[in-house]
C-alpha cells in the first residue's frame, strides 16, 4: 500500500476530535478530513455515547481508513471528565473491532514527540506543527480536531501499533525521524 | 407494567457480569438470567470490547430487558484496571442508547444500601443477600455475576433512574424500603 490512511480520534463526550490523514511511504502527509463530533451535555449518557458512535461510523463510512489511532486515557487526569473520555475511547476502539480495523492507542507524550520531536512540547506547538505538516493555512479548530490529526500523524510515523516492531530506518529514534520529516515538510 | 425486567451489568474487560431480574410491583424479584461475558486478555483491546458488546447484545436479544443498570466507575480506584472498566461501562451504555433502552448508573454504595440496607456492607454480605432475595440455593459465581444481579435489584428498588423522582412509598428511605423488602423476602 503506497498510502496509509489513518483516522485519529481525540476521545471526548462533549467534543470528540476526528482527523483523517493519508501518509505516504516518504512520510509526507495529506489532510483528508477533520472535524469534531459533539454530543449534547443535557442528554443522558447512553444517547451521548450513541451520538459519538454514529459520528465515528459516519467518518469511517465516508473515508475508509485502514487504521484507528486513539489517544490513550490516563486515570490520573481530571477526575470529573476522565470517565467520559475513557468511555468515548472505548466506543472508538469498539467500532474498530466491529469493523475489523486495526486500532492503536498513543499517549499524549508519544504524540508530542512524534509531531514536534520532543515530548514536552505544549499543545499550541503541536497544533502549529500539525498545520505546517499538512500545509494548512490555519490550525484546525477546535483544538480537539487538531489533536486528532496529531494522533493520526503520530500513528503513521511511529510505524503502526505501539506493540509492533519499529520500522527499519537507520539509527534515528521514531521521534527523531518524525522531527526530521516534519522539518523537511515544513521547508517545502 | 406489572413487572420490570432489569439487566444489571458489572462492567469489566476480563469478566463482565450480567444479571437479569424481574421485579414485581410488590418488589419481589425473580432471577431470569445470570452470567459472565469474558474476553481474552491476550486479544487486542478493540476485539475485547467487541466481544463484550456481542455478549451484552445477545443477552438483550434473548431476554428483552426494559432498562440497563450499570455500575458507576470511579477513577480513584485501581488505576490499572479502571480504564478497561470505564470502557466496558461505556460499551454497555452505548448499546442501551442504540437499542433505545433506558439506562442508569449506580454507585457501589447505592447498590450495597439498596440490597443490604447499609452502604458499608462487604461484598460477601451483598452477594449472600442477592441469593436470599432471589431464593437461590447458592451465591451465583463468579462474584461479577452476583454483583450484576445486585445492580439490577438496586435499580428496580430505587425506582428507576437515579435522576427520576423517588417512588411513592411512605416515609422510608429507598434503603430502608429495600431492607424491609429484603427481610420480608428472606423470611418466605
CATH class of chain A: Alpha Beta
Given as residue ranges, the uncertain stretches of chain A (5+ residues, pLDDT < 50) are 161-173, 182-188
Query: How many β-strand runs of chain A?
Result: 5
Number of domains of chain A: 1
Explained architecture:
Two copies of one chain form a homodimer. A five-stranded mixed sheet of chain A has the order 3-2-1-4-5. Chain A is built from six helices and five strands; from the N terminus they run E-E-E-H-E-H-E-H-H-H-H. The C terminus of chain A is likely disordered. The longest helix of chain A has 21 residues. The first copy, chain A, starts with a strand and ends with a helix. In chain A, helix 3 crosses helix 4, helix 3 packs across helix 5 and helix 3 crosses helix 6. Chain A has one domain: Nucleotidyltransferase, domain 5. The radius of gyration of chain A is 16 Å and the shape is globular. By secondary structure, chain A is an alpha/beta fold.
Summarize the structure.
With 188 residues, the first copy, chain A, is α/β, with parallel strands linked by helices.
Amino acid at each position: 500500500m503506497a498510502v496509509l490512511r489513518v483516522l485519529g480520534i481525540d476521545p471526548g463526550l462533549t467534543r470528540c476530535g476526528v482527523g483523517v490523514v493519508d501518509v505516504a511511504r516518504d512520510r509526507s502527509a495529506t489532510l483528508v478530513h477533520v472535524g469534531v463530533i459533539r454530543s449534547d451535555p443535557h442528554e443522558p449518557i447512553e444517547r451521548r455515547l450513541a451520538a459519538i458512535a454514529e459520528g465515528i461510523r459516519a467518518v469511517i463510512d465516508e473515508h475508509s481508513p485502514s487504521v484507528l489511532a486513539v489517544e490513550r486515557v490516563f486515570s490520573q487526569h481530571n477526575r470529573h471528565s476522565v470517565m467520559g473520555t475513557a468511555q468515548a475511547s472505548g466506543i472508538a476502539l469498539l467500532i474498530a473491532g466491529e469493523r475489523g480495523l486495526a486500532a492503536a492507542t498513543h499517549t499524549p507524550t508519544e504524540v508530542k514527540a512524534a509531531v514536534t520531536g520532543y515530548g514536552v512540547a505544549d499543545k499550541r506547538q503541536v497544533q502549529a506543527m500539525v498545520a505546517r505538516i499538512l500545509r494548512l493555512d490555519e490550525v484546525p479548530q477546535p483544538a480537539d480536531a487538531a489533536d486528532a490529526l496529531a494522533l493520526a500523524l503520530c500513528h503513521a510515523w511511529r510505524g503502526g501499533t505501539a506493540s509492533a516492531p519499529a520500522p527499519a530506518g537507520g539509527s534515528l529514534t521514531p521521534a527523531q525521524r518524525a522531527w526530521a520529516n516534519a522539518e523537511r515538510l515544513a521547508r517545502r
